[in-house]
Amino acid sequence: MDAVRVALLREALAGTEWPRATRAFGGALRRAVRRRGGGLLLVGTAAYEPWHLAAHLDEEAAWSGVPELAPTLVRHRVPAGARPHLSVGLGRLAAAGRSDTLLVVAPGPLGGTFLERLAAARRDGATLLAVDASGTPDLRGLAHDALDVPAEPLLPLDTVQHLVAAGAAATRRPRPRLTDRLFAPPRRW
Hints:
- By secondary structure, the protein is α/β, with parallel strands linked by helices.
- Helices cover about 45% and strands about 15% of the residues.
- A five-stranded parallel sheet has the order 2-1-3-4-5, with helices on both faces.
- The radius of gyration is 16 Å and the shape is globular.
């Protein structure tokens, strides 16, 4: 989704809490990764991998001048033969520390073992943020900041993720020219 479509979406949602809430959450994400200077670890649930958000954050990192927004997708199950940047398993959460920001996208319930891993990463100093549609109170309690997505949302989770990515990349820098985007090197997603 390009900047024009995001602007149109925000305009269509004017009068709801979504533009403000997603921009504020995106800003919290941007501040966390810039302050920490480490990696952004993006993880979903066992049943959902947030590919969509990973791709948008990677793109926004390039165009916004905030390279720290480029995420590492952490996967519950890594298939044999996966490319190196798609081969990061849950063991990476055990190594998360003070320089890491962990963004959890939870469209459904989280298992107890997964919540324990998240709690351990937070105890070890990682900043924990969540886009939470799971209704799991434990996740909300663990997160430093969370964007709650109701069970019957006005917007699908993928659309909310577009707004979060755009909000995270919002800077005072001018957007790149069209020719800059046309001739840019291909992104990894």
